[in-house]
Specification:
about 300 residues; 10 helices; single chain
């Protein structure tokens, strides 16, 4: 969900930028340098695609110039961190495809019923998202993926960390899409929302308010992003179910944080979005750990 920032809590948005941007930029520089000396095609393809993507976002006014630059850096970081063999098609089989799905779904959702959202005062700025909003929604995906650079490409550790990191990133991206789509569609078609903790009727745009239509739309967006992501990395339906579960639980956690913390002005919307994406990754880790424990005890 997108809200106008509360000035007293702007430090939270700045903190997210400080967490995400330096790490992501450093990751891109280090990985670009390595790939440029080893497999130049990976370096130039990644930098070229991410740069073009950033320009498109800016030209479509889906984000400010700073937001487009932040998104381009996150895209490059995800692409480098999810590079797969063979290199000729690695850009198709990594983090780029689900990231593009997130952009297309959220961009379309924000345009639907724009006049009604503007009357409610919940519409997105005509300049698009700012850098903090991009970092809050997508930054966690770059953060969980970049530890893969510590492994030697082509090694077993590279494959293991790459698969886990990509699953976490897919869950995060699916949650980000679900959150925005559920909010944007719910405001237009969902009618009067209900408070997630009490289920009483509240005004549209209320923090913690959910609608059935919005929730279904959000779950559908999560399913689309998860499906594309799982196809891109060649995982199975069980991995898809885990990522989808993480995204949907993150969607409800977002509404819970909005109801309990954002409504009391303890957290701003960027902090809520960032923590919700982190919760999606955490859910995936818990589910994977539970499956491993059950498999061990069932022997």
């Amino acid at each position: 969900m997108i809200r106008k920032p509360t000035k007293a809590l702007e430090w939270q948005s700045k903190a997210i930028l400080l967490i995400v941007v330096p790490w992501t930029v450093a990751s891109v520089i280090l990985q670009a340098r390595w790939w440029a000396t080893q497999v130049p095609m990976v370096a130039w393809t990644t930098l070229g695609i991410s740069g073009i993507f950033g320009l498109i976002v800016w030209r479509l006014k889906a984000g400010t110039l700073a937001a487009a630059a932040t998104g381009a850096a996150i895209t490059a970081s995800l692409m480098f961190s999810t590079t797969r063999y063979s290199y000729q098609t690695s850009w198709l089989h990594g983090g780029l495809m689900p990231l593009l799905a997130v952009f297309l779904l959220t961009y379309a959702a924000t345009k639907i019923g724009r006049a009604r959202k503007e009357r409610l005062g919940t519409g997105e700025s005509k300049r698009g998202r700012n850098a903090a909003q991009v970092a809050a929604n997508l930054g966690a995906a770059a953060l969980v993926a970049t530890p893969r650079i510590l492994a030697l490409p082509g090694s077993r550790a590279w494959d293991t960390t790459g698969n886990l990191a990509t699953l976490l990133a897919i869950a995060i991206l699916a949650e980000a899409a679900a959150d925005t789509v559920s909010s944007e569609i719910g405001q237009v078609f969902g009618g009067q929302p209900r408070f997630i903790t009490t289920f009483r009727l509240v005004e549209p745009g209320t923090d913690g308010g959910i609608t059935l239509t919005g929730t279904i739309a959000g779950a559908a967006a999560a399913a689309i992003v998860t499906g594309i992501g799982i196809w891109a990395i060649g995982e199975d339906i069980y991995s898809a179910a885990i990522c989808f579960s993480g995204a949907v639980l993150g969607l409800f956690f977002d509404s819970f944080l909005g109801a309990v913390f954002e409504r009391r002005r303890w957290l701003n919307n960027d902090a809520v979005n960032f923590l919700s994406t982190v919760s999606a990754a955490f859910t995936v880790l818990v589910l994977l750990a539970s499956i491993l424990l059950l498999a061990r005890f069932s022997r």
